[in-house]
Amino acid sequence: MTSTQTISVKTSDLPAQPSRQAIQAKTASKPGRVTGKLAVAINLMIEEGTPWDKAATQAGLTVRSMRLAMQRPHVIQHIKVQREVFRAHACAGNIHRLVEMRDQDENKMAVVTAIKTLEQIGEAATVSGGANVSPGLVIVIQNGPQQIANQPQNGDNALIVQGSVSNGD
Question: What are the residue boundaries of the structural domains of the chain, listed by start?
Answer without folding.
Answer: 29-91, 93-127
